[in-house]
Amino acid sequence: MTEDTPKMSPAEAAGRAMVARTSFEKEAVWLPVLAVNHWNAGEMVIAGKTFTDCVIEGPAVMAVMNGTTFDGCNMGAAANPRNLLLKPLGEKIVGAIGMADCRFVRCRFAQVAFTGSDELLADLESGIVAGNSAMEQAGGGAA
Amino acid sequence: MTDQPISPDAASRALDPRATEFRGSRFGLLDLYRASMQAGGGAVIEGRTFTDCTIEGPAVMLVLENVFFDRTNFGPTGGDMRNMLFRPLGDMGIGAIPVRNCTFTNCRFLTLGITGNDELLDMLIAQVKTVDDSQN
Questions:
Q1: What does the angle CA B50 – CA B51 – CA B52 come to, to the nearest 5 degrees?
Q2: Is the interface score ipTM higher than 0.95?
Q3: Which chain A residue is nearest to residue B77, measuring alpha carbons?
Q4: What is the pTM of this model?
Q5: Which residues of B have a CB under 8 Å from any CB of A?
Q6: Across the interface, do B90 and A78 touch by the CB < 8 Å criterion?
Q7: Distance CA B11, CA B52 (A)
Q8: Which end of chain B has fewer CB atoms within 10 angstroms, the N or the C?
Q9: Is the pLDDT of residue B69 over 80?
Q10: CB contact under 8 A, A76 and B94
């Protein structure tokens, strides 16, 4: 007897389950895997998720898109906050992980760089110093 | 839904992360980087030759010294090579995957960005023919 609908592999099913989630709390999130799971589900941008007290791991470059916010986050270890920033040379962005309408609350980023518009990069540069400082004063890390 | 999933795990697992020559392989750059690090290869992909390989992201490659691209298809760039290029604002390459002393011959990149010094970026913009999305 044959089945009409092919079953997903366990790995694909797990990937789809990850894509369906809208909130992540107190866990480590490997950003490239999150991106690939979205891409394989036909979603080229990660959108509408809230990450609270998470560690967001790279290596990866995040393209910060409309509606994405960082609240009390440690953006990563860098003596110079500009080391975490990359300026895109074109109007489109290839190779970075697009994130729109996502909210990061008290998260810590490890080996993640950020890219976006000039205005966003300027905001991030000032925000990285303030955010890292605030998190250190609050006692440190996530997850 | 894409017709071919990115980062096929089986193919990546089959790679020898310390090999110096890769021929006809398809793998994620990040998978090679992590496997190489775990195998004691250090935090840079170094001293490798890639021939006829398809190399996938999502990732941004930090191109360091002595990296050569020979007949490389840089993948869909939206008609403008600059769409896959990033200029570091600082002097470190956090978040990117560093590559040094490597040669890519007749390889194809998918969803890979590139960063490096101004000289490299300017050279790529000037010398690389853009690839139209419809050809990939």
A1: 125
A2: no
A3: A94
A4: 0.86
A5: 1-2, 5-7, 9, 28, 30, 33, 57-61, 75-78, 80-97, 111-115, 121, 125
A6: yes
A7: 15
A8: N
A9: yes
A10: yes
Is B84 in Cβ contact with A60 (below 8 Å)? no
Place of tokens 């966003």: A120
Cβ–Cβ below 8 Å for B95 and A90: no
Min Cα separation A75/chain B (Å)? 11
Query: If we measure between CA atoms, which residue out of A127, A96, A123 comes closest to residue A112?
Result: A96
Residue A65 and residue B123: Cα distance in Å, rounded? 29
Enter the tokens of residue B130: 């853009």
Dump pLDDT digits (tens) for A117-141. Answer: 999 999 988 877 666 666 666 665 4
Helices (H) and strands (E) in chain B, counts: 3, 10
Q: Report residue B102 as tokens.
A: 């490597």
Measured distance CA(B11)–CA(B2) in Å, rounded: 18
Spatial separation of the C-alpha atoms in residues B87 and B115, rounded to whole Å: 6
The Cα–Cα gap between A73 and A105 comes to: 6
For chain A, the residue count is 143
Work out the angle at residue A130's Cα, subtended by the Cα atoms of residues A125 and A131, and round it to the nearest 5 degrees: 95
Q: Are A27 and A57 in contact, with CB atoms under 8 Å apart?
A: no
Contact predicate B132/B49, CB 8 Å: no
